[in-house]
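quick q for whoever's on today - can somebody do inverse folding on this one?? i tried earlier but teh output was garbage lol. tokens:
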């Protein structure tokens, strides 16, 4: 009889991983399922990066490394922040490398949260933020953004969510699940509020930085320099370089926080995979030409979906400016029925869509807003064309 910890009792398994798993099982059982549930680029890791990993094995880079990254990778991360974001960090003391970006978020929360500490999480949010906060003993405070504001956090909504217990604000732009991008002006507006609350730290999750279409990426430590000393700027190799399985995340921030995270890493992961770290050095220092090409492919898929869904009865979609997700509202499908079954929630819609038309999407409830569905268009154009037809047919079939 396994008695679980109270900490584990506070969280649920990742719903996006759960839907992907269900889709995999249906596929394995011979069903023709199109899974648009996972946030994973469908491109291969670029050749020069994969080669650097292979070379690392050949060169014997297969032992333990420094807990928070080899100096070569920290140098490459510092150079990336300087080059892409105009941010200067000392690679020796202000940069950290972890086993994936998700673990850096976990490490930052684990290193700083005490019971009762609050973390402001704008909704719709990436599924893991609230649960990571809860796992680490903190309390997530959800700040609802509105579709009318393009799902962007506004200064008013932020101010209303802040209490004397607020320890962190988590920002994610481009956003998973909405694709909303915060402009430099948006960030300055939020910065004005944060400057009035000097104890609040900011975690800027910039993992989709390189996947933008009509908007320019900006990050808060650069847009509001007065905040830099309390911002953890987080990023990683997964999305930009199609390296989800390699597990490399990185970030930069104030020395005391980076020190605390190093201590935690030394007693948990020991170090990020040595081979992946050398591959990430090649990724960050190497040619980035492939990004433009891949972004064009994502843009074509997004545009295809937007044009098909414009005519799908019951769906309404805000045009995403970045990342590779579409977040259609499905209010028009709620209260309708299919085969005598009434769709009452977005979970009902997602379940019926998977069973009836074999398309796996994640219900908006998982991201803290309803009724929506999240569709990841990190899939081939052929799959996207077929899925969009099936989804439209599903909408038309409802009584
Ligand atoms: N942040 C956001 C918003 C994400 O969508 C993801 C992955 O889905 C991550 C962080 C974590 O990525 P990884 O742990 O692969 O670096």
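ok took a stab at it. sequence:
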């Amino acid at each position: 009889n396994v008695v679980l910890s109270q900490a584990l009792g506070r969280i649920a398994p990742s719903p996006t991983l759960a839907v992907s798993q269900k889709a995999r099982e249906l596929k394995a059982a011979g069903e023709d399922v199109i899974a648009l549930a996972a946030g994973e680029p469908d491109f291969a890791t670029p050749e020069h990066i994969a080669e650097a990993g292979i070379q690392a094995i050949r060169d014997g880079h297969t032992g333990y490394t420094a807990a928070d990254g080899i100096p070569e990778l920290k140098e490459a991360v510092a150079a990336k922040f300087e080059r892409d974001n105009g941010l200067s960090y000392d690679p020796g003391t202000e940069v950290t490398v972890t086993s994936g970006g998700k673990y850096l978020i976990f490490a930052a929360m684990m290193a700083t949260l005490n019971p009762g500490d609050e973390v402001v999480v704008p909704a719709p949010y990436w599924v893991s933020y609230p649960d990571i906060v809860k796992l680490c003993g903190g309390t997530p405070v959800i700040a609802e953004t509105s579709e009318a504001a393009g799902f962007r956090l506004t200064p008013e909504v932020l101010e209303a969510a802040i209490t004397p217990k607020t320890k962190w604000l988590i920002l994610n732009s481009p956003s998973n699940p909405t694709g909303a991008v915060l402009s430099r002006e948006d960030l300055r507006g939020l910065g004005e509020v944060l400057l009035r609350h000097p104890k609040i730290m900011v975690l800027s999750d910039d993992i989709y930085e390189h996947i933008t279409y009509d908007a320019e990426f900006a990050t808060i430590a650069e847009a509001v320099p007065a905040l830099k000393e309390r911002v953890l700027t987080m990023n990683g190799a997964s999305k930009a370089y199609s390296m989800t399985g390699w597990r490399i995340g990185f970030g930069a921030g104030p020395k005391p926080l980076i020190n605390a995270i190093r201590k935690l890493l030394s007693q948990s992961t020991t170090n990020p995979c040595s081979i992946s770290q050398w591959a990430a050095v090649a990724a960050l220092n190497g040619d980035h030409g492939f990004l433009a090409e891949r972004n064009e492919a994502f843009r074509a898929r997004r545009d295809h979906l937007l044009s098909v869904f414009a005519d799908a009865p019951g769906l309404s979609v805000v045009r995403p400016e970045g990342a590779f997700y579409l977040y259609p509202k499905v209010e028009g499908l709620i209260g309708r029925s299919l085969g005598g079954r009434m769709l009452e929630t977005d979970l009902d819609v997602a379940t019926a869509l998977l069973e009836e038309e074999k398309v796996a999407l994640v219900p908006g409830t998982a991201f803290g807003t309803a009724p929506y569905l999240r569709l990841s268009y990190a899939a081939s154009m052929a799959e996207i064309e077929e899925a969009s037809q099936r989804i439209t047919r599903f909408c038309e079939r409802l009584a």
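fwiw The chain has a mean pLDDT of 95. also The first helix runs from residue 6 to 9. so keep that in mind when u check it
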